[in-house]
Amino acid sequence: MNHRMARIVNILTLSVYVTLSVSVLGMFIHPAVLAVNIGDKPLERLFDYIRLENKTSPLHPIGDFEANKDPAVHAANIEYLRNNNELLDKIRADLGDQKLHWQLKSLYSRLAYVPERRPEYITLYETYCRIVIGEILAQTELPDPYEGIYTLSEAVPSLPMSGKVCAYIVHNLSSEIRAEYEFQNETNQAVAVELSGSYFVGEVGSYSSFLSVDDNGNIDFARDRYTIWQNSAQNPYTALMTPVEETLHIAMRESTEMAIRAVLERNIDKDGKFFRPVSEIVDEWISIEEALVGGLVYCLLPPILEKQIGVAPSVFIDRDIETKSGFPKYRHLRQGIELVKRMGHKDAIKTYLGDPVAFRNLLSSSHI
């Protein structure tokens, strides 16, 4: 569900920023704690909760508005403007001209969430997260990245000073946008149109790091200190795999950033300009990280679901892969699954953490 509204404002008259891509407070959960007695598989009820109709309100913001260069958001805004004849007629009337020129002046967004308020589901999903993450960390021998896991209501807890990551569980995840477009006539008179609205992002997990390059070509990375997990999805398996997927993204991200930095440093001239678009380099390496993570999830999660829930439905797993394969960042997903199956999860992780380029080369040579 998307909502937008516009406001017209009268007007009198190279840094690169890329995202590598998200009160009843849930109890603190430490994923290393594995001694949980869940009785006679009550987690089976998770399927029923996950498939209930998503709630779309109320929305609460996470963080501040930040610059957004997502072309999909821009395209949706343009579609809205083109189809809003009443607004366009008002702009033409204000400018006294039927022919208009326009440009994007600014685009900002921030995440927002619908809280989970059903006590039983909060307990079930948190228990599931504690168990599944604990088993994944034990099998992969990866370090525990979490300060704690919380089900959010109206308040977002303060981030820890430890440098570890907080995991926030929400019912539904949305993005709020603010955009300004400038329209001009042939004599350069102008009006600004401010758009604001929200849309549900269609992704059930979020963990972001940020690449900035200043005018001198200096490269810097920063990472969110939180990850967000949505506990609802049309495909129940997608909501069940999200905590595992995002945990693995956190573990692999430093190696991904290392690979991106190396490519950027080889593609910059003495004036700090890049020979290749920065976003192209980032997208390439995010797709490789997604291939590894997708392969690890495919190999490791189903046996855990069989053990804890009593079922690992292949039809839902296949549907999840099919859906993701339609998006560019998952273009190597099937190859990643086959590569991890062939290498084994420990060797795949060891290779990526030690030499992500070597893993990429192995991925490139994989054929289905």
Describe this structure in words.
- This protein has 368 residues and is an alpha+beta fold.
- The chain is 42% helix and 24% strand.
- It contains ten helices and twelve strands.
- The chain has helices spanning 46-50, 71-83, 85-95, 119-140, 236-266, 278-308, 314-324, 333-343, 345-354, 356-364; strands spanning 2-11, 16-19, 60-67, 101-114, 146-151, 165-170, 172-184, 190-200, 205-206, 209-213, 219-223, 226-230.
- It has a five-stranded antiparallel β-sheet.
- A hairpin with a 5-residue loop joins strand 10 and strand 11 (219-223).
- Helix 4 (119-140) packs across helix 5 (236-266), helix 5 runs antiparallel to helix 6 and helix 8 crosses helix 9.
- The longest helix has 31 residues, at 236-266.
- It is globular.
- The model is unreliable at 4-39 (pLDDT under 50).
List descriptors.
368 residues, alpha+beta, 5-stranded antiparallel beta sheet, 24% strand, globular
Concise overview:
This protein is α+β, with helices and mostly antiparallel strands.
Please compute the radius of gyration using only Cα atoms: 23 Å
Strand content of the residues, in percent? 15-25%
Strand adjacency order, main sheet: 1-8-7-4-3
Helical content (DSSP H or I, runs of 4+): 40-55%
- Please state the structural category: alpha+beta
Q: Helix count?
A: 10
User: Which parts are unreliable, with pLDDT below 50 for 5 consecutive residues or more?
Assistant: 4-39
- One letter per element, helices H and strands E, the order comes to EEHEHHEHEEEEEEEEHHHHHH
Count the strands?
12
Principal-axes geometry comes out as globular
Chain-averaged pLDDT: 83
The main β sheet shows up as: 5 strands, antiparallel
Distance between the termini: 37 Å
